[in-house]
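Listing 4. Sequential folding, example run.
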Amino acid sequence: MRLVLDTTTCSDMTFEEVVDFASENKFTSLEVSCCPRWKSHRKTTDACHIDVENINYAMSMEIKKYCKDKNIEISALSYQPSVVEVNEENCDEYIQHLYKMIDAAHLLGISKIITIITCNQTKKYYYTMEIDKKTWNPIYLYANDKKVELLLKTNEY
C-alpha cells in the first residue's frame, strides 16, 4: 500500500520540509502542489512546492535527488484551480501555467498532473465538457506528446 500526501495541506512548509515530513511519517509518495506564485487560487492555500514557472534541468535534478535520498516518490503534480474559470479574464494565464506544469512533469519524469475540470457551479459537468473541448483538446495533445497524463477532478458535489 502506498501512502500519498497532498502537499496543498502544507502551504506554510517548503518543499524540503514537506519531503522530510513525509519521509519521517512513512509516506511513500507526494502529490505536489504547483500553484503559480503570481496568484493565489485557492481559498485555503496557494501552495507552490515546485515552481514550474522557473524550473530548469539543474533544479529538476536537485528535486529528484532530494526525494530519492528521502525515499519519497512524486506521484503527481497538482494544480487545483480550474483552467476554465468562471472568471474567464484569467483563463489564458491558467492555461499557460498548466502547459508549464506539463513541461515540468516531463522534465522531472512525473507522468501525472491533477487539476480541476471546472469551477463553474452553474453548469453541469457534461455541459461544461462540451463547451471546453476547444480549450482541453490542445492541452490533451500537448500532454500526450510529453507522455504526461492529465487527471481531471470536478468540484461539483
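-- end of first protein; second protein begins --
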Amino acid sequence: MHKPWEGRFREKTEEFVEEFTQSVSFDRRLAEEDIRQNLAHIKTLLKAGILTKQEAHLLEKHLLDILKEVQEGSFPFRKELEDVHMNIEAELIKRAGEIGGKLHTGRSRNDQIATDERLYIKREIKECVILLKNLRKELVRLAENSIDIIVPAYTHLQRAQPIRLSHYFLAYREMFLSDELRLINAYRLADASPLGSGAVAGVDFPFDRFFTAQELGFRSLVRNSMYATSDRDYLLDTLYACAVIGMHLSRLSEDLILWSTQEFSFVELPDRLCTGSSIMPQKKNPDVLELIRGKTGRLYGNLMSLLTTLKGLPTAYNRDLQEDKEPLFDSIDTTKKCIEAMNLILEGLSVKADRTTPPFGDPMTATDIANYLVMKGIPFREAHRIVGNLIAYAISQGKNLGDLSLREFKEFSELFEEDVFELLDPRVVVDRRKTYGGTSKQEVIRQIQIAKREEGVR
C-alpha cells in the first residue's frame, strides 16, 4: 500500500509507528460521514471544472458501493492506511483507477476530519435529543400518576418540607429539558462547514464553499480557515452537555438507590433490572442505577481529557487532535446507554405510597407554623425562634408536634389557637404552596398540563 506522503521519504515507516499513529481502529466509525463528505466534494470539483461529468459519475458509483459495504460491515479497513480517510480513498483509487486520485484535490485531512466530526456530532445529538424526550415523557407520566402521593423533600439529606411526588418528577423533567438546550447549542456550534479550508490557509481552486455546505446540510460556513481546521470547541460543548446529562442521571440514580433501601422503602425497583449477590441470597442490588452513577465519572473524564489535550496546542492542526475521537465516541455511547437505562428503570418503578406520606405532626410543617405566627404580626425571625423552641420541647418529651396540646403550644406563644393543628397535616401544608412552580395540587396539575403539551403527550 502506497502512503500519500511517501514521495518525501526515503525510509519505510516502522511497523511500530504505523501501529502507534493509526486511528482507523476507532475513526472508522466516521466512514459514512466521510463518504457523504466525499460525495459532496465530488460535486464541488465538478462545479469547479476539475472533474468531468463522466469522472464524477464514476467516482460517485464506486463511493456508493463502498458505502454499502461499510453499512454491511464487509469493508476491509487496513491499519497500514492509518485512518478512515485514506482507507476509503485508497479503495476508491483501487476501483476507479487514477481518476480516484483526483478526489483529494483542494482538500486536506485537516478540513476533512473536522467536517466528518461535525456531521457526526449533528447526527448523534439528534439521537440524544430523542432519547431525552422519551425520558421526559416517562417523567411526565409518573408525575401525572402520583399527584396525590406526598413525600418528604430533603435538604442536607434531612427531612425539610412535604411535597407532592409529582413535583419531584417534574423537577427532573426540567433538568433534562435544560440538557436538551445544551445539546442544541452544541449542535448549532457544529452546524458550520469547514470543508474548503484546506490544511490551514484555504485553497487555490475556485471552490464554492457555500455550495458544498448546502450539499452537506450545514447552516453556515466556518469563516476562518485556520480556525476551521483546529477548532474542537463544538466537541467540548458536546462533551460538556453529556457530562451534565450524566450528572443529572447520577443524582436521580442516587435518590432512587436510597429510596429503594429497606430504611426508606419508598420505591420498588423491578426485579428484571436488578441483580443479586454471589454470597448473600437475600440481596437485590440496584446495579443499573449504580452503574449510571459510576459512568458519570467517565463522562467527566472525557471532557477533562479533551480540555487538557487542547490547552497546550499551538494554533492550527496538530496530530494531538487525533485524541479527540475516543473521548467523543465514548461519551456519546455512554450517555445514550445511560438515558435508555434510566428510562427502563422509570418504566418499571413502583411507588409505595403508604410509606412515603409523612405522619400528622411531623416537624416538616414547622415553617408553616412559623408563618402562622408571622400572619399574626410576629417578625419571622422571632417566629422562627418560637417554633424552634417548641420543637426542641417536643423532642425532649419524646413527642411529635401532633402529640402536643393547645395548652403546650400556648406556653410558647399566646397567639396559637386551635386552627394551628391544621398546619400539622402534611397534605394541608403541601396545598398551601400555590405560587408559580410550587407544589400545591392546583399548581402541579397546571405544570403537568404544560409539560404534556410541550412533550406532545396526550
